[in-house]
Structure formats: C-alpha cells, structure tokens
Design a protein that fits this description.
Layout: H1 6-29, H2 34-45, H3 48-71, H4 76-141, H5 151-158, H6 160-176, H7 188-193, H8 195-199, H9 206-236, H10 241-268, H11 281-306, H12 315-346, H13 349-361, H14 363-381, H15 390-417, H16 425-446, H17 459-463
C-alpha cells in the first residue's frame, strides 16, 4: 500500500495556501468602477488621458468664444447659434456615452482577469482527470494487455474528477448569476444589441447551458464511481463477472464521452467567443487535454516507481506511455494546423478574427504553445532511448503540461479579457492552488487501495510485458 509522504502533503498545502492568497489578491486588486479604469488607462498611455482633457477644455473654450461672438447678432443669426449649440451638446453627449461604454467594456475585461485565470486553471486540471478516465476506459474496452498494472494509478488520478467537477460547476453557476462577464451571451444588454447571439439563444441560454453541464459532469462521475467499484470488487471475486460488467459499462461511457466532450468544448470554451466557430474544435480540445492526461499518468507513475512502488512497472510500460505522449503531441499539432490553415485560407471575417486577435495580441503564448507542444516533444521523444530515461520524460512532461495550460489560456483569455492580459499573480496563483489540490486529492486516493489490480484477467500479461 502506498503511503502519502508528509513532505508531499505539506507541499500540496503550501501550494493551496499560496494559491488562495494570490487569487484573493487578484480579486482585491481588480478595478471596481470606471474611474479606476480611467486612472489605469491614463497611467498606461503616459499622458494620453491628459491630452484628451486638454482637447476637451480647448473645445469648450472655442465653443464659448463662438457663442460670445454671435451673441451680439440679431434675428436669424441668434437662432442659428442656438441650433449650433444644441447640435454641439448632442455631439458631445454622444461622445461621452461612447467613452463611458468603452470604459465599461475595459472594466469588465479587467474584472474578468482573476475570474478567467481561475477558470482556465480549474477547467485544465478537471479535464486532465477526465482525459485519464477516457484513457482508462479505452484500455478496458481494447482489452489491452500492457496497461493493467497502471490501472490503479489511473483510478487515483481520476479521483480528482468529483472535486474538480464541483468547483467547476460552482464557477459556472456564478457566471450565470452575473458575478462575472466571462460569457458575454449571458449578459442581456449584450444580447439585445447582437443579432448573431440572438439567433443562437435557443442553444446559448443559461437554463439549458447549466442543465447540459450538470448532465455531463454527473455522467462522467457516475462512470468513474461504478468503474472503480467494479474493479475493486473484481479483486475479491472468484470469476470475471465484475470485469464483464465494467466492459459493458465502459463501452457505453465512451460513446457518452465522445458526444459530451464535443458539446462541452462548445459550451465551456468556444462560447466565450460566441461569434466564432470551428468544426474541428471538439477534437482540438480533446487532443490538448488527452495528451496532458497521458503525460500526468507518466509523471505520477515515475514518481511512485522512484519511491519503490509499482514493482511490476518496467521500462517497457514507461516507453509505451512516452509513445502516447509523442503520438498525441503530433495529433494535436495536426489539428492545430488544420484548424488554422482552413480558417486562414478561407479568410471569412467572423472566423479569421479569432486568429488575428491571437497572432497580434497574444503572439508570444500563441506561437510559444506550438513550440512547447510540438517542437519540443518532437525533438525529445522521437528518440526511442529517450522514452525510457526518467529525467528526460519528466522534463518533457513538465514542458508539455505547461504548454497545454498555455493552449487553454489562448483559447479562453482573448474572449474574456481581450488585450488586457498578462501572466501575473492571479494566473500563477490559480495554477498553484489547483496543482496543490490535485496533488492532495490524487495521492490521498492512491493510499486507499492496493496499487495492483490483482484479479484483472490481463494482469499477468501486463506484469511480464516486455519488448
């Protein structure tokens, strides 16, 4: 049985504490009104705001002089001056209204920043556990002979799914109750002025949206609970009845997963940019969190192996995990380029805006993600020998996980904070909090059951897996 080391447990608590402090600071530091936004923009423009004020005073002075000049005239001249003054006031009022509208938009973006940072980290870690659950299910249905010695590691990682789901669902509820502006289509004022969002209102409305989320989360967690329950019961069984139950249950889950995963990617990620769409997006999101999930399995396995556990896991098992890491990194790149090329080549305004924003405003993280998620894994993991070396895999795994966090950052931030982005305290703190929580939940779960599924029909084949 695995024992959760006090050092690792302490580390998880420290990460969570630092995360909570940083997240709190992010919310406390966010501007509360448009006056604060004006001060921020003035500081950023280095005197640009003062120039606007000077221009306003000059305009007012000119208007006053003009009024005094015509004041002495009689008849039609006086009437003309009054009309001009009214027109000038109307023009000024329109400008003021537009300026206030712009400031309100920037206020929402800056207030979104800590929320978006929390959202990106929350969905990233939750989807890692979901990806591990899907990988576990695929191994079950494929009746794979190499992987059963890793099943309890996978089950331990999926223990985070219920915790992550609860936190994520609460964030979705807060979005619907207008605690933030992450999803613009939830704002009635925006919908009232946007015909395209109005046309999607039958699908993008809060009751239907949150109901779908509840069904997805409950379905995934139900499978996770029943599958682990059956697997543990199989250890005590004299036949393969619980294994067969799991096989049928998993086949149904994988159908449910592939449908709900696509819809989830539209609901929770694509809809932050409700004017944009991509038919590849569901696969793209899947590739991103699936390779992250496999990488997490490899890192947790290497840690446990280094501590003297998982005696039947050998370099061949590690090599297979590394091959999946390499293969799905290439698959992610294929989808990244396919989505980019088709939209860029078609040059349709409502689609191409998505990439123009990311190339012009998010240039470094946008292309940095490609380097971290494709170029680096390609150069490192294409070598067969490197797939068996622990420190090489750990280095590659850390870069891949960081790169796919940046990928989710690129998917969500432009639609929520626009050009008001930077990786600061809220972003780092959110990652630290959920990383600490993830470590605590996963390694606590690993202590509860034996690390070997001893009655799995393929366990002996897995124990002696070599090539």
């Amino acid at each position: 049985m695995y024992t959760f080391s006090s050092k690792l447990k302490t580390l998880s608590f420290i990460l969570m504490a630092l995360g909570v402090l940083g997240i709190g600071y992010g919310f406390w530091n966010a501007p509360k009104d448009i006056q604060a936004v004006e001060q921020i923009l003035a500081a950023d423009s280095h005197g640009g705001h003062a120039a606007v004020e000077s221009h306003g005073e000059s305009t007012a002075h000119e208007a006053t002089s003009a009024h005094e000049e015509v004041k002495g005239h009689e008849g039609t001249t006086e009437a003309h001056a009054e009309k001009a003054a009214v027109a000038g006031e109307h023009h000024d009022a329109k400008e003021v209204k537009e300026h206030e509208k712009h400031l309100t938009h920037v206020l929402h973006q800056l207030q979104n920043k800590p929320w978006a940072a929390l959202y990106v980290a929350c969905i990233f870690f939750m989807l890692i556990s979901l990806g591990v659950l899907a990988f576990y299910g695929i191994q079950q249905v494929a009746q794979a002979g190499w992987s059963p010695v890793l099943f309890r590691v996978m089950q331990g990682i999926t223990a985070y799914l219920p915790v992550g789901s609860i936190i994520f669902f609460i964030i979705l509820l807060l979005c619907g109750f207008h605690f933030n502006h992450l999803f613009v289509w939830l704002d009635p004022e925006v919908v009232a002025e946007d015909k395209l969002i109005q046309a999607k209102a039958g699908y993008l409305n809060f009751p239907f949206w949150i109901a779908r989320a509840a069904v997805f989360l409950l379905g995934w967690n139900y499978y996770r609970y029943k599958s682990v329950q059956n697997d543990l019961a199989q250890d005590e069984s004299n036949d393969n009845s619980f294994y067969k139950k799991n096989f049928k249950l998993t086949a149904g889950f994988l159908v449910f997963f592939i449908v709900t995963e696509s819809i989830m990617s539209w609901d929770w990620i694509m809809s932050v940019d409700p004017h944009w769409f991509s038919t590849l997006f569901g696969w793209y999101v899947f590739a991103s969190f699936f390779v992250s999930a496999i990488t997490t399995i490899a890192l947790v396995t290497l840690y446990l192996k280094g501590k003297g556990f998982l005696e039947y896991v050998n370099t061949s098992h590690i090599h297979d995990l590394a091959k999946f890491m390499f293969g799905f990194s290439v698959f992610w790149t294929y989808l990244w380029f396919s989505q980019f090329m088709l939209i860029w080549y078609a040059n349709i305004p409502e689609e191409i805006t998505y990439f123009i924003t990311r190339i012009e405003v998010y240039n470094l993280p946008f292309f940095g993600a490609v380097v971290m998620n494709f170029v680096f894994p390609l150069l490192i993991l294409i070598n067969t020998d490197f797939k068996r070396i622990t420190w090489v895999l750990v280095m590659a795994g850390v870069v891949i996980l960081a790169g796919h966090y940046i990928d989710f950052f690129n998917m969500i931030m432009p639609g929520t904070v626009g050009d008001q982005w930077f990786i600061g305290v809220p972003e780092i703190a959110s990652v630290l909090f959920f990383l600490g929580l993830f470590i605590y939940v996963v390694f606590s779960a690993l202590t509860k059951n034996p690390l070997l599924a001893k009655r799995n029909p393929y366990i002996e084949e897995s124990k002696h897996f070599h090539y």
